[in-house]
Amino acid sequence: MKKQVAVFLLALMPLFVEAQNETKKIDLTLSLTGNIYQGDLTPSILGSTKDLKPGFSGMLRYQVKDDRVYLRGLLNVASLKGDDAQFTDPEWSKNRNYSFTSSVIDVAAMIEYNLNKDDKKFQPFFSFGFGFAKINPIKDASKIDTNYYAPSSQEQLGLIKEKSITQPKLIITIPVSVGFRYKINTNAYLFLEACYRSCLSDYLDGFSQSVSSQKFDGYSVYSLGYTFKLKGYSKK
After folding, report:
1. What's the CATH code of the domain at 215?
2. Is residue 203 within 8 Å of 170, Cβ to Cβ?
3. In a domain, 5, yes or no
4. Structural domain that includes position 117
5. What is the pTM of this model?
6. pLDDT at 231
7. Could you tell me the sign of the dihedral formed by the alpha carbons of 158, 159, 165, 167, in that order?
C-alpha cells in the first residue's frame, strides 16, 4: 500500500511543481451597461431597444490555467422595464397594455475561456456560469381593455391568480456571454461583452398566469468598460 501511494505522489510531482511556479493573474473590469428585458411584454425573443436601461458592473477575474481559462465573479446593478403600449404588432398587445419596471442587482460566478493568449492585442472570449438576481418588479395591469379581454379570459383570470401568489424576489440566472478585450498597454484593456441571462423563473416582470406564454423570462446585458491588471502573485 505504501509503495502504491509513493508511486502516485511521484506521478503528481510534475503537476505540483508547475503549479507552484505559476504566476497567477487577477484583474478588475469596470463597465457601463445597457440592459434589455426579454420576456412576455415584448414581441421579440431578442427584446427591444425601446426597453434599454443603463447600469454599471464590476468584475474580478482570476487566472485558473495559463492565459486562457479564468474564473470570474461579477456584480451588475441596473433596472429593467417592459411596456405593451410601445408596440402595435401584435395588435392585442396594445389592448392588454401591461407594463412593469424593476430594479436588478445580480451576482454571478462564471468560467471564461479566451481564444487567444494574453500577449495578443485582440482577445475574444466566451463564458458561462450561474448567478442570482434580486428583483423588485412593480407591475401595472390597470390599463387592460376589459372589452377586448372578457372576465373569463386567461388574462383576467390570471391576474386574479397572481394576486394570491407570493412572487419571488430572488431568482436563479444562467448567464452566457461572448466578447473581447483589446490590449491598450501591458496593464489595461478595452472590454466589450454581450451577455444573456436566462432566469429560472417567469416572474422577472411580475406576470406569469396572466400571459399567453409561461416560459422563463430573461434579459441581456451589454457592457463597455476597461480591464485593469491588479498585482499578481507567484507561488515558489
Report:
1. 2.40.160.20
2. no
3. no
4. 24-226
5. 0.85
6. 65
7. positive
